[in-house]
Amino acid sequence: MPVSITANTSARYAQASLARQNDAVTQGTLRMSSGQRVLSAADDAASMAIGTSLKIENAGVASALLNATSGTSMLQIADGALGQISELITRMKALATQASSGQYDDATRVLLDGEFQGIKAEIDRLANATVFNDVNMLAGQKDFDIAYGDATTYGIAGVRFDQTLVTGDQSFRFGYNATTENFTLTRIDAGVAQTQTINITALLNGTVGAGGNLANNQQLELGFSQLGVTMTLGAGFLRTQNIATDAAVTDGGVMTVASQTFAPATNQVGVDTVSDLVALGSVFNATTGVLALPLDSDGTAVTLAAVPGLSYNVNSGTIGASGAASADLVGAGPTTVDVYADMAAGGRVLLGTVTLGAIAATGTGSGSLSLEVGAGLMLATDTGEVTATQLTYKVGTGVTAGIDTINVSIPAMTLQALGLENVRVTTQANANEAIDLLTNALAVLNQGRATVGAQQLRLEAVARNLGVISDNNNAARSALIDVDVSAEITAITTNTAMMQASLAMLSRANQVPDILLGLLRN
Question: Collapsing DSSP states into helix, strand and coil, what is residue 95?
């Protein structure tokens, strides 16, 4: 290689080496100051991806751990209150045993009953005052019978009600649009329809992936907070299948219908609607929720045939008599038909409105008009009973029932739930009856307390396991992402020494042109 004044190859080599060592020292400084070995995906793409996933997973595990420990604390409060109620019932039984003895007259028993009734009131107060984060644990919940107009239920795994909003019998209709993936719930028994819509695309994608369906025991909860309803979707729910009311005409070859749609009623549909429809007999299929209305054609006019218990209103005219045929439907359209059903309790309810396109009679005969009046219909009837408070704890990062969620049941301990509402000890007969009722109440209480204790132990075990998972996740992520301090310090020291050597060599290389110029001057 020639010796050149302009090229100075040695200086270029030294400068390139200096730049490399400077980058290495800078990178090491960044790693040491941040505590992370992988600062970007360019450093280690695989470790960055896995480490980020572990970080996200561990955030969910940490929240699940908090849920489990909070649940344990909640059940501990409930158990403490149950212990107090047990003491009170024990005292009540002692008073009842005392009052049942023959040495007391009824006047004395009235005095004993005074304390007895005070203890009763305290039991009810304790049951209603045992609250954790505004959740009343021992007061129980209203028991609802839930019926569906369509027995297939489209993969609805369960329904819960917020009892501050759903206080009595209510009717709802749920629908799902597979194109937009919007799930809608509408309350339809009130005077004005109340609707809430939830887009479930992100919820499903985050659970089962884009385009996937819930499988096996996976579940997804949809909280319609404005209506006080929580619906749980199960493995039978298909995201590509609409839940919607529809209409279909079988013309029998004697008529033509350009189009048909059905809009179900959105208000004043009571909880007795399904039972009233079942009473219609063969025209209503309680399994599919389809109402099949017979169509008649005389070659000129087409009418909905008479069905006992149904009445029709064509094009907003006069509502026909119950069990009478409709007015003529033939026309250019659109033709609207309001369909009403008689109620067993009296009066009638609008089932919905059919809109038909152009209708023409092409012969004599009959056909049918099928309406999915039961699609998505859900009825909640208050039984007047009190059941255990049902709580669902999220103890995992997914939505698989029994694995990521745990259902906790806290039994009701009000006087109604214990069967002690009317118990007293004012007479010897009342006292003897009270002894039996208190024995039964103690059995209910002990069973409930055992249930609470078992669930508390389970949540404690869950919390311990989640703690181990969290620790191991952090250790795994640390191994992938965190900087190895000793190794990084060694690398920085080495690179710093090399950087100093490069600087020295660059200085000497820059002296070469001066030496060559000295030769020229001489």
Answer: helix
Q: Which of 386, 391, 385, 455 is nearest to 133 (CA)?
A: 391
Residue 267 has pLDDT above 70, yes or no: yes
Omega cis (within 30) before 334: yes
Show Cβ contacts of residue 19 under 8 Å, excluding neighbours closer than 6 positions: none
Parallel, antiparallel or unpaired: strands 229-233 and 220-224: antiparallel
**285-298 tens-digit pLDDT:** 877 888 899 999 99
- Classify 168 in phi/psi space as left (phi over 0), alpha (psi -120 to 50) or beta: beta
Q: What is the 3-state secondary structure (H, E, C) of 340-373?
A: EEECCCCCEEEEEEEEECCEEECCEEEEEEEECC
Q: For the sheet containing 310-314, what is the strand order?
A: 260-264, 348-356, 335-342, 310-314
Look at residue 117 in the predicted model and tell me its pLDDT: 93
Q: Which pLDDT score is estimated for 210? A: 85
Q: What's the number of CA atoms in the CB half-sphere (13 Å) around residue 65?
A: 14
CA distance 398 to 239: 19
Of residues 117, 111, 102, the one with CA closest to residue 432:
102
User: Which residues lie below 8 Å from residue 306, measured CB to CB, with a gap of 6+?
Assistant: 323, 324, 325
- Report d(CA 194, CA 198) in Å as an integer: 14
Q: Nearest CA to 297 among 356, 368, 250, 364?
A: 364
C-beta of residue 413 within 8 angstroms of C-beta of residue 136? no
For domain 48-138+414-477, give its CATH number from 1.20.1330.10, 3.40.50.740, 3.20.20.10, 3.30.230.10.
1.20.1330.10
Q: Which token pair is 142?
A: 């209203």
18: confidence class by pLDDT, cuts 50, 70, 90: confident
In this structure, how many other beta carbons lie within 10 angstroms of the beta carbon of residue 441? 24
**What pLDDT, on a 0 to 100 scale, did the predictor assign at position 5?**
60
Share of the chain above pLDDT 70, in %: 93
pLDDT value, residue 2: 61
Q: Which residue has the tokens 């009000």?
A: 414
Does residue 1 carry a pLDDT above 60? Answer: no
Mean pLDDT across 212-239:
87
15 vs 23: CA distance, rounded Å: 12
d(CA 390, CA 179) in angstroms, rounded, equals: 34
Sign of the C-alpha dihedral computed for residues 128, 134, 138 and 140 taken in this order: positive
